[in-house]
Amino acid sequence: MGTVMLVPMARRPDDAYPWERLPADDAADDGVTHAHRASWVLPAVPSSTSLARRLVRAALRDWAGSAAGEVPEVAELLVSELVANVLRHGRGEPVLTLLLRDGVLRCEVEDEARVPLRARDRSPDDDEGGRGLLIVESLSRSWGVHPTSRGKAVWFELAVPEECPA
């Protein structure tokens, strides 16, 4: 699980609505061919977890169609875990970014909190809460946290089948 550099993300204009797709919706400007990128600012309300799942599903349907296999369902689950963590423990409006290139889907959720995160230890005595990052760790090919100018971003990556046109 190595660290992966992010492609810079354009910020939303001040007059953009929350959950609106940001202007940098394709990654062609960074010199990478056959890449797709989309970002949304989500409202800091509980319903943003389901909104994030719908946005992931729609983007992957547009980009990869049925060739993505089970990736959309796994991505939806993991994104909803990250958004839920921001809503419970973070600050500000979550920013969801998806980047699909070279057979890899990278999903990132950024917030304004600077507190580092870690997966909880597995213990049968623990309650049901707090296991979202364990799920992310178990189902993704890699994941991590990095500081941003706003706070921090938690990301994960999933392999997308080769026949998927990126």
UniProtKB/TrEMBL annotation:
InterPro entries: Anti-sigma-factor_SerPK (IPR050267), HATPase_C_sf (IPR036890), HATPase_dom (IPR003594)
Entry keyword Chaperone: no
Cell cycle keyword on record: no
Name of the featured protein: Histidine kinase/HSP90-like ATPase domain-containing protein
Pfam families reported in the protein's UniProt record: HATPase_c_2
Protein species of origin: Microbispora siamensis
Highest taxon, organism lineage: Bacteria
CDD domains: HATPase_RsbW-like
Domain Histidine kinase/HSP90-like ATPase: 43-156
Keywords assigned by UniProt, alphabetized: Kinase, Serine/threonine-protein kinase, Transferase
